[in-house]
Amino acid sequence: MKSPRVSGLGIVLGTIMLTASICGASAQEKPQEKSPDKSQGSAEAVWPTKGWQTSTPEEQGMDSASLAKLVAYGTGRSFDSLLIARHGKIVLDTYYAPYSADIPHIINSATKAVIGTLAAMAMKDGLLDSTDHPMLDFFPEHGIQVFDDRKKAITVQHLLDMTSGIDWREPTDGLPVTFFQMERSPDWTKFILDRPMSNAPGDIFNYNSGNPHLLSAILTKLTGMSAEDFAKARLFGPLGIDEWRWRRDPQGVSTGGNGLALLPRDMAKIGYLYLRSGQWEGKTLLPPAFVEQSSHATINMNLRFEPAFRYSNYFWALPDRNVYMAVGYHCQVIMVFPALDMVAVTTARDFYPFGVVTDLISGAVKSDTALPPSPDGANLLANAVREVSTEKPNEVGTTPETAAAISGKIYTFPGNGLGLKSLSLTLTGSQPRIDLEFFDRDPTAPSRKVGGPIGLDGRYQKGDTTPAGVSAAKGSWSSDHTFLLRRLILGAGLAEQKYTLSFDDEKLSVRGIDRNGREVSVDGGSWRKS
């Protein structure tokens, strides 16, 4: 799989590392009652290597009517997908239009859990002697600028647990200042190693995407290949994962803190590997002790929105609910429910109250054995899935004369907060189209062009594939001179982009929201294509 180097994914990828304040839980949520772990029966396990088997919810002890409510809930929370597998079989696999099952989804900070998984595999293979190994031993060639004895004490386990003590500003409910600085640096590994220390290793939890990036660089040194290539051989290959994308830093290191894109069904395979205690088709891929440590996390994340969260090996855990998960910005989540023998996956374009969703999922479990068929519940669930997976067309109103006047013209813009360099609409004829050009965040990098069909009937039309996902657009006239443009990057996990285009002779004013949530307006002029 081709891994794009970091260049200017700009607006699209610039914000995806604001990890998950992400899926905040409410104080009123009821804890899930603990029950015995039922995930250990690997001898009878179903293995989805060549594809997942499917089942009705009732056959796996789940209630279809409850799942129908969960599917409907996802509509108001900007879900892209929702998948639940129990006893090794998928009981729900839903895709919210215009996203579809064939588009790999960026999993943002859930990438960290994959890096941790690879580190455990390197330890099982004898390539890493221990997670207590000092981190600096792997970087003798780096002349570290800021050095003290505390930095010498950092171990691989400190990296895995976000307790390295490296000075880093990346709050789970704020702007990831240091991460953005790292992205702009010419050498990410050196940038991280040169950071000063704020605490002794092991003292406190501090979220830091530099930690897993160092671990990715360590994996490259241990294996002689990138983390991506190591994953292909040791993780993706055995699990039957054959489609992915993974970013690289300027030195070619697979990004450790984010940047991996997977299909939701393949995300579920990674969760299932953990549900089966690191076993896969009779082979031990992960040390069981590593899985145990991940599922019984004890490090307090000190989160204001949910004090119960604990952390270990790049996994978040809610011990009260007996669930642990890999978590990415805008709720790209792989959930593992050991006591319920269940895995769930969400991909989304916005935050949701985490406790509500986990309770809706676990609340649909009614029995450890099969339930009687429920025709009424099955109909409710089928209708709910049909409703979210299909966009409804609108009646197309009268097209104003402005449409013909502006079609084919290219409008250009000076530098602006929207990153928009040029825009062209073709709104006459049988194939309406939009073409956009964006400035790169790196002023030395070329601009980025993306285009494709645009839906005028209320339905998104898919266009070019970009490094972040599939571009899709739709629009409508709100007046004779005002066009409302809506744009998505399918699989990017980012909110819908909304632009108001106001045409006035040869001028175009574009109003939209920049990546910091501020309204921005920019004016441009036009010239016609030759």
Provide structural commentary:
The chain is 25% helix and 25% strand. With 530 residues, it is an alpha+beta fold. It folds into two domains: 12-387, DD-peptidase/beta-lactamase superfamily (Beta-lactamase); 402-528, Beta Barrel (Lipocalin), CATH 2.40.128.20. It has a ten-stranded antiparallel β-sheet. Strands 1-3-2-14-13-12-11-10-9 form a nine-stranded mixed β-sheet, with helices on both faces. The protein has a three-stranded antiparallel β-sheet with strand order 4-6-5.
Keywords:
530 residues, alpha+beta, Beta-lactamase, 10-stranded antiparallel sheet
SSE blueprint and pairings:
Blueprint: H1 10-14, E1 53-54, H2 64-75, E2 79-86, E3 89-95, E4 105-106, H3 111-124, H4 149-152, H5 156-161, H6 177-184, H7 188-193, H8 210-223, H9 227-239, E5 244-246, E6 260-262, H10 264-275, E7 279-280, E8 283-284, H11 288-295, E9 299-300, E10 310-312, E11 315-318, E12 323-328, E13 332-337, E14 342-348, H12 354-363, H13 375-389, H14 402-406, E15 409-412, E16 420-426, E17 433-438, E18 448-453, E19 461-466, E20 469-479, E21 482-490, E22 497-504, E23 507-513, E24 519-528
Parallel strand pairs: 1-3
Antiparallel strand pairs: 2-3, 2-14, 4-6, 5-6, 7-8, 9-10, 10-11, 11-12, 12-13, 13-14, 15-16, 15-24, 16-17, 17-18, 19-20, 20-21, 21-22, 22-23, 23-24
